[in-house]
What does this fold into?
Amino acid sequence: MYKVTLDAITQQLNSIERDNGDGTITYILPDPANADYQAYLAWLAEGNTPNPYVPPPEPAPLTPQEKLAAAGLSVDELKTLLGL
Amino acid sequence: MAATLKCDTIQNASSSTANLTLDASGNATVGNTLVMGSSFKRNRIINGNMYIAQRATSATVTAGTAVPTASTGYPCLDRWYVYSTGANVTAAQVAGSGSNKNLLQITGAASVTAVGVGQRIEQLNSYDLAGQTATLSVNLANSVLTTVTWTASYANTADTFGTIGTPTKTQIATGTFTVTSTLTQYTTNISIPAAATTGIEILFTVGAQTSGTWQIGNVQLEAGSVATPYERQIYSDQLAQCQRYTYILPAAASGLYFQAIGAVNSGGVGLAGGSFPVTMRAIPVLTVSATASNYQIYLVNGGTTSSCTAVSLNGVTNTNYFLLQLAWSTTGTAGQVLWFSCSTAGSPAIFSAEL
It folds into this structure.
C-alpha cells in the first residue's frame, strides 16, 4: 500500500507513496498536521513496513545527433569548429 | 422636521434587557446580535453555497468510513466531505433555483444505509465560538426521506477529527430537521462548549437513501442566536478560501496545459515548482494519476517533449511552495530548463491539506 520515495538530488527519504487503487497515487510528506501522514503513522504502528524505493527507468542515452542539437550545433558548424 | 430622540436605552417591550444602550461618549452597545440585511465574514462555513468545485462537478462516493483524510472523502465540491455506507452514492454540484445558483446533490442507490455530508472548520476559524451560542442554517430538500440529522462536534486535538469509522472528536449537540422535497431553510441554535477551541465539525446525515435525491445549500454557521441571511462573497474570495485546503494544477481537455517550470537535475530526472496562490493550511499531499505518461516535460532548449515515467512530490514542498520531482525517458542536460505539463483531461495534480 505504501512505498518510500527518495529525493532526486540527495537520495534521502523524500515522501511516502500511497497507491489509492483507483488509478491515482498520493505522495505524503511528514507533516503531523496532515491526516494522511497520521494514517501512515498509524499503519506503521500496526507493525507494517512500506515497500522499498524503486528508481524510475534510466533514460535512453542521447545519440550524437541529439547531443549536437542540445548544444545548438549543426554538423557543418562542428566541422568548421574543428577545422575539418 | 429635524428632531433628536434623547434616551439611554432602547428596549423591546418583551425583552428583559436593553436591545441598545447609548452612553455619553457617543457609543452604542447592542445587547445581542446586530442583524443586518446583509453581513460580512460571519459565516464560518467555507463554500456553503456550493459554488467552488475544483476537483469535479460530479463524482462517485465509494462506500466506506475510512474518510475523510487530507486527500480522501472529498469527491467534488470544495471543503465538503461525503461518505456513504452500504453502497456507493453520487455527489454532484447541481443548479439551484432563485438566488441559489448551486446546490450539493446526493443521489441515492439501492442498499445504501447512510449518507453523510460534512465540513470541518479549522481551529483558527472557530476558536472564538467556544463558550458562545452559534446558529446553524441550511437549505435542505429530500425527494424520499423526511429526516435530516445534524451533528456538531469538536476535535479532541487541534484540527484532528479522525475518520468517520475512527473518530477523534467530541459531540457538541445533535438534532433533526423534518424536511420535504421543497428546498427550505432550517435553523438551529448550538451552545458551543468552552472546550471547543480545537476546530468544529458540522455533519448532516440521512439514513437509507436508497433512491431519490438529497439537496443541500447555503450552509451557514455564525456566532449568536439569530440566523442572518446567507453571507455571499465575491467568487474569487471564496475560491481563495478553498485553495487554503485544496489547490489543483488542472489538466487540459486537449493539447498541453502548462503547469510548472523547472530544470533538469541530471539525465532524465528534474524538478519543477511554483507558488501556491494562498498559504495552505498544512503541508499538502499530492495526488496524481498512476499513469505517469499522462504528464509531460518539454525541454526548452532542443524542443524535446517527453512523457513522464514518474511524478512525485519533493520533500522541500511547504505550505507556500511546491516542488515536483519528475522522471522521463530521454536524457536532458543538467540545468536545462523544462516545462511540466499535462495533456490528459481527468488527470489533474491535486494538492490537498483538508482536515
About this structure: The two ends of chain A are 59 Å apart (CA to CA). Chain A is about 30% helix and 20% strand. Residues 35-45 of chain A form the longest helix (11 residues).
